[in-house]
Design a protein that fits this description.
The structure holds two protein chains of two kinds.
Chain A lengths: L3 H14 L7 E7 L3 H13 L3 E7 L3 H8 L2 H4 L4 H9 L2 E6 L12 H23 L4 E6 L3 H6 L4 H11 L7 H20 L3 E6 L2 E6 L6 E3 L4 E2 L3 E4 L7 E5 L4 E3 L2 E3 L3 E5 L2 E6 L4 H8 L8 E7 L11 H4 L5 E7 L14 E7 L4 E4 L2 E5 L2 E2 L11
Parallel strand pairs in A: 1-2, 1-3, 3-4, 4-8
Antiparallel strand pairs in A: 5-6, 5-18, 6-10, 7-9, 9-15, 10-13, 11-12, 13-14, 15-16, 16-17, 18-19, 19-20
Helix pairs in contact in A: 1-2, 1-9, 5-6
Chain B lengths: L5 H12 L7 E6 L4 H13 L3 E6 L4 H8 L2 H5 L3 H9 L2 E6 L12 H10 L1 H12 L4 E6 L3 H6 L4 H11 L7 H19 L4 E6 L2 E6 L6 E3 L4 E2 L3 E4 L7 E6 L3 E3 L2 E3 L2 E6 L2 E6 L4 H8 L8 E7 L11 H4 L5 E7 L14 E7 L5 E4 L2 E5 L2 E2 L4
Parallel strand pairs in B: 1-2, 1-3, 3-4, 4-8
Antiparallel strand pairs in B: 5-6, 5-18, 6-10, 7-9, 9-15, 10-13, 11-12, 13-14, 15-16, 16-17, 18-19, 19-20
Helix pairs in contact in B: 1-2, 5-7
The chains are: A alpha+beta, B alpha+beta.
Chain lengths: ~375, ~375
């Protein structure tokens, strides 16, 4: 049975997120599990006069590659990726993995080797993105793998994701425009502040955002979306924070993580589960001990923790901090091979900006808010 | 389920058909339904030190393109296809249809525009194959759709395909080398001959093959394989041919095709079903009414017509003729965006003569072993 929500999501991607234009070279990539959405996006793009290219993958190949490739093969940079990065106008990456733990047994050193080979190309890609030459969006297509991580049936998980993508609104494209406008008010408010203080059970941390820009994330780069973020001043973070949700990365889960900051650096860390892995991540490089991101999730339809950073960082009533690489467009300078998002529930917390309480119990105060509310 | 011998098939494709070597850029393309075979080829290609690129072809896209694309979109030549055709060392292309009739409602004129746009690239590809710069093998993965066309169960179809691929045998690569040797005897016999005459029910056709060599096909460009082909002299075909098996082109099925040749060109055509489509294909371009191929099928694993040209043209006891593009490696010069195979049944009341000498009778060669 055709799911109309898939067609509406395709419309949002093509008409809003990437604003696909006639003649655009447009890559659509994802595993074949996302075939219904791939086809819907392909059709929408054709109707807009673009040149859509579908680059569909098989689940499991990446694991096979990382397990078996020799050095020469690990260093090979895909000619297709080069073509897309250098010549394409837009691309949608439909995250649609079958098994979220497929890479759990892969030797991290081999992943590092692979990432190193792509470093120059990714830098080129960022350059083209920043100049507006390449528009990219990452959207999540609901699969059994993601639903399993979220401890939900696929049907319930689909409901969650599609609602959060606003495709159940009467006019999803108009809805995202409205989100963009309302979140801009939050961003404008924060952009003239210097110091943020976050207080919650197990958390008391201050950080400087002086001279940094907050970015309004409202469906152009991620779907679902809903967050405002910046990169805090690298040496400004002081205090401690308790992450109420498990941190999931590279197929591993760190529970009950706590971090202590001094002068911007993590000076102490603990976890209830997988603490050794937490330390290993912190020791990746010098930049891995500093914050690359501070963000507030704003999507009220994201009501459940799903063990998927792409979704969980959007949950209204949470903040997330990322260790590692910072965002130059937000003014961040920290560099690291990692960018590790950690989500903290703020439904019993408060945030102060230059001493003014503007966020309490998961809600913005003073007329700031999202335009839509779940029933 | 019958044993598909996926590992043997992958081994033949990688180590025999396209002989993957270290450092090769290798494309592996197929539909999602062929996933087990694609993965095994991918694994083996990695093991040979090459760079495998997998291209998963989603079944619904081409239909959407033909339905929604405007002319400029239809005329766009894919940069990805260009990359694969112009730069890659080896390509394994897996046909794996889930519905062989999915283009039945598509506008044929749009298909023609799209094909014409790809013609130059196709020729580049054929030249790279002819020069040995790129080794390309087309293969087929058994799907319910193919079984349905063949009027067989999937299990029965899988068993037949295994036999046709020789993968029911312990050492398939050795079997393909033996097939190559046996084809070579026919090739040798036909070397230096000037005229072929084909006689079968409702069929009497003469073509000149003077100066054109026959070539053996034993699993390198098609898998399964089994044919001996050449390109007849372009203006030489005269007579008429009846093609009893159903023929599919872009999702349309034609039955009972008859062609009349004069001076190398089809001057009259008829079909019991879809005749207007037949005429349209023949009118594609200047070269699409001229023969680009004359070939004998030699594969005894293909025991009955399946409605799939890749298999039917290999069927032992048949000859197939192709309208359109002539292969340069066999001396062909005919140019066309079409290369359209039609199979003629020679198993009964049939014979083929070379310069007046009968060398093939009722489906069997009278030469060699």
């Amino acid at each position: 049975m055709a799911d109309l929500r898939v067609e509406k999501l395709a419309q949002v991607i093509v008409d809003y997120s990437l604003a696909v234009q006639p003649g655009d070279l447009f890559e659509i990539t994802g595993t074949w599990l996302a075939a219904p959405l791939i086809e819907a996006v392909y059709e929408s793009a054709l109707r807009r006069g673009a040149q859509p290219y579908v680059n569909a993958t098989l689940p499991g190949l990446e694991e096979l590659f990382l397990a078996q490739a020799d050095k020469e093969q690990l260093r090979h940079v895909s000619l297709i990726e080069q073509l897309v990065v250098r010549q394409f106008d837009a691309r949608i990456d439909l995250m649609s993995v079958e098994n979220t733990k497929a890479l759990s047994q892969v030797d991290p050193a081999r992943q590092v080797e692979r990432n190193r080979a792509y470093k120059d190309l990714w830098q080129e890609r960022r350059g083209r993105q920043e100049q507006g030459g390449l528009r990219e969006c990452y959207a999540l297509f609901p699969t059994q793998g993601y639903a399993q991580d979220a401890e939900m049936s696929l049907r319930v998980f689909e409901d969650l994701v599609y609602r959060a993508c606003l495709v159940e609104e009467a006019d999803p494209v108009a809805a995202w425009h409205e989100v963009n406008r309302r979140q801009q008010e939050i961003v404008d408010y924060l952009n003239i502040k210097e110091t943020l203080r976050i207080v919650a059970p197990g958390t008391e941390v201050t950080l400087s955002v002086a001279g940094r820009r907050f970015i309004n994330c409202s469906g152009t780069v991620n779907l679902p979306d809903g967050e405002v973020f910046t990169s805090p001043v690298e040496d400004s973070v002081d205090g401690h924070i308790t992450f109420t949700y498990p941190v999931v990365t590279r197929g591993r889960e760190v529970d009950g993580a706590r971090l202590w900051f001094k002068g911007g650096r993590v000076v102490k860390a603990s976890a209830e589960k997988n603490e050794a892995f937490l330390h290993q991540m912190l020791d990746t490089d010098e930049g891995a001990r500093r914050l690359g991101e501070f963000a507030i999730g704003t999507n009220p339809y994201m009501t459940h923790f799903t063990r998927n950073a792409h979704l969980d960082e959007k949950i209204a009533g949470t903040i997330h901090l990322a260790l590692g690489n910072a965002f130059p467009k937000a003014g961040g300078v920290n560099q690291s091979a990692i960018h590790w998002d950690m989500v903290c529930d703020l439904r019993q917390g408060e945030i102060y900006a230059d001493g003014q309480l503007f966020y309490r119990a998961g809600e913005f105060l003073g007329g700031l808010s999202w335009p839509f509310r779940p029933e | 389920m019958a044993d598909l011998h996926i590992e043997r098939i992958a081994a033949v494709l990688v180590d025999y058909s396209v002989s993957v070597r270290q450092g090769d850029l290798v494309q592996i393309a197929g539909g999602p339904i062929a996933e087990p075979l694609i993965k095994e080829i991918y694994r083996l290609t990695l093991a040979r030190g090459a760079h495998p690129y997998v291209r998963i072809l989603l079944p619904g896209l081409q239909e959407l393109l033909l339905e929604h694309a405007d002319t400029s979109q239809l005329e766009h030549v894919s940069l990805l296809d260009t990359l694969f055709v112009e730069r890659f060392d080896a390509r394994i292309l897996i046909e794996s249809e889930t519905n062989t009739k999915r283009f039945s409602q598509s506008d044929p004129s749009k298909q023609v525009i799209h094909q014409a746009a790809g013609r130059e690239l196709k020729e580049t590809g054929l030249l790279r194959i002819a020069s040995g710069a790129c080794r390309v093998c087309w293969t087929i993965f058994p799907t319910p759709a193919y079984a349905q066309d063949a009027e067989m169960s999937l299990r029965g179809f899988e068993e037949m395909l295994s036999k046709a691929c020789f993968v029911d045998q312990e050492d398939p690569i050795a079997a393909w080398r033996e097939e190559e040797r046996s084809q070579a005897q026919v090739v040798q016999y036909l070397a230096g001959k000037r005229e072929l005459r084909l006689v079968a029910p409702d069929t009497d056709l003469r073509v000149s093959i003077e100066g054109r060599a026959f070539r053996a096909c034993a699993g390198t460009q098609n898998f399964p394989d089994g044919e001996i082909y050449s390109c007849p002299i372009e203006d030489s075909a005269g007579g008429h041919v009846f093609f009893p098996f159903p023929v599919r082109e872009e999702g349309r099925e034609m039955r009972g095709i008859r062609l009349w040749f004069e001076g190398g060109r089809v001057v009259r055509e008829s079909a019991e079903q879809n005749e207007s489509y037949l005429t349209r294909v023949l009118d594609t371009d200047a070269g699409s009414r001229v023969l680009g191929e004359f070939a004998f099928g030699t594969n005894r694993g293909v025991q009955r017509p399946t409605g799939n040209m890749m298999l039917d043209e290999k069927m032992a006891g048949t000859v197939h003729l192709a309208l359109g593009h002539g292969y340069a490696e066999a001396g062909g010069v005919n140019q066309s965006s079409v290369h359209w195979d039609l199979v003629c049944d020679l198993r009964q009341d049939s014979a083929v003569y070379a310069d007046g000498q009968m060398f093939y009778k009722n489906g069997r060669f009278l030469i060699g072993s």
